[in-house]
Amino acid sequence: MTEKKSLRDELTGLLSDNLVSVVEALGETTIVIRASEISGVMALLRDAKELRFAQLIDLCGVDYSEYNGWEGSRFAVVYHLLSHAHNRRLRVRVFAEDDDFPVVDSVAGIWPDANWFEREAFDLYGIIFTGHPDLRRILTDYGFVGNPFRKDFPLSGHVEMRYDPEQQRVVYQPVSIEPRVVTPRINREENFGSD
Amino acid sequence: MPEIKNYTMNFGPQHPAAHGVLRLVLELDGEVVVRADPHIGLLHRATEKLAEHKTYLQSLPYMDRLDYVSMLSNEHAYVQAIEKLAGIEVPIRAQYIRVMFDEITRLLNHLMWLGAHGLDIGAMTVFLYCFREREDLMDAYEAVSGARMHAAYYRPGGVYRDLPDTMPQYQASKVHNATAIKRMNENRQGSLLDFLEDFTNRFPRHVDEYETLLTDNRIWKQRTVGIGVLTPERATALGITGPMLRGSGVEWDLRKKQPYAVYDRLDFDIPVGVNGDTYDRYLVRVEEMRQSNRIIKQCIDWLRSNPGPVITANHKYAPPARESMKQNMEELIHHFKLFTEGMHIAEGEAYAAVEHPKGEFGIYMVSDGANKPYRLKIRAPGFVHLSTLDEMARGHMIADVVTIIGTQDIVFGEIDR
Lengths: 195, 417
Fold this sequence. Notes:
The structure holds two protein chains of two kinds.
Chain A: H1 2-15, E1 19-25, E2 28-33, H2 38-47, E3 55-63, E4 75-83, E5 88-95, E6 103-105, H3 114-125, E7 128-130, E8 159-164, E9 169-174
Chain B: E1 7-11, E2 23-29, E3 32-39, H1 47-52, H2 56-64, H3 71-86, H4 92-121, H5 124-145, E4 154-155, E5 158-159, H6 178-184, H7 192-214, H8 218-224, H9 232-237, H10 243-247, H11 254-257, H12 278-305, H13 322-327, H14 329-340, E6 348-356, E7 359-367, E8 375-379, H15 381-387, H16 389-393, H17 398-408, H18 412-416
Antiparallel strand pairs in B: 1-2, 2-3, 4-5, 6-7, 7-8
Helix pairs in contact in B: 2-3, 3-4, 4-5, 4-12, 4-17, 5-7, 7-12
């Protein structure tokens, strides 16, 4: 635990003005930074000798619009960093300021593997990464419309694909599957059934 | 003289060396690769979105289908994320069983990789040898879970059930007479642990066989030495993990550096490469197989002498025993609630990573306190490795692209998710 403490101290020492919050939970450290300051902060996290987060392990988008009791911005980008030198992990969260047009600066210039991760977040959540060298869709089909991992995108999608023997080609048509919920999502109030 | 320009060639998605459904758009200057643009997503099933609509237990079998060559390692990361968020204590015996099966999975994966990699470069025999040993390990999967591949054996809080006392036997058929069957069943007379012990005793000899075929083979070396070289600095910057990173000489293994389960109680070594080329990565993986064998041996010894529970007694997360459920009202309620509504995980977020055979496999889970995850992100090592293909293949001949795809150990189930 002493090591984790020092990570918090080092972060507050180096980034004091840039940190929106620092949370330590379940043995993991999470910091929230402002979207406008991302490039400078990320470069510092990688290069400062007390931190040396040389690897970007993961980058993903999150859509908080249906989160229980959520009031902040809708889209966030979450970065998981790993430092080999200090054997530490760090989670960084950045909220996109505009819910209708989420924009975050790209970190592909800092960690090259962010390239594909940002393409994925762009594809699935529609988050725009400014300064990205090649922001194309990556996982969805060629010519796909929409951002499938947004919470307002239905699980069964909008279109389905089939071979049309008359036109002798593959055609798209509206989905014929009725959406159904087998197990509803249930969020109990605090301490439900504890006594 | 006509002006000769680069031309673009399409590779895959239907190609035996594409390891599934990789589509590559290659820009070539003669036979030299100028640019490689992998098109992925042809196997995209939106596992992460599906998980948001299912209870925690219902999503577990989907994890097998991510990297379908190393099934239980994926499950391990998933159950670890749940256990971390919910604060579930896992019995020590379950942790040993998990480690043993993680290493069996590593063998399964590396055998598949070695066979396919050899086949890609033109070594046919290795493939047949590797599949011979894979068969025994698949039988171990089957004995413990009933399924040869998609086991769904790890559960939040432990494993589904204890190791079996008997092994399934071969039956006489048109192609095998009674004598042949008797010989085939010889090592299946005892428990699963006896069967695995027999396997670990003969496996090092089999690894020697693979090495006899490949390690000093002139053709093998011509095809692999100096191909796809990654310096340690570049490999780190590119986010590469696992044997790919260790092949470049970076000694980084989560089993040693951030030990989970019972890896800190076991004795094993981490092999690293020197040159960071395809040949070194081959040597690293072969040595990893020998080390996995050592770990399995230690787990067998421990499991023999230490009986105990294999799943947590907290019935909010694990079902009660069948017998007590039929006699006890409260247990019946637990059972019913767990399998209809599912478990509720406290609000929070957690990232759990395991040293998957291919690299760091992580699960990032966000829960808002409901019976389903709010967001599940799968960090697949293959996704990052494939993103470096452009850089690794640039300047190599087109035949080396196949070698580089092989050395990256690509499986599309996890890349496309």
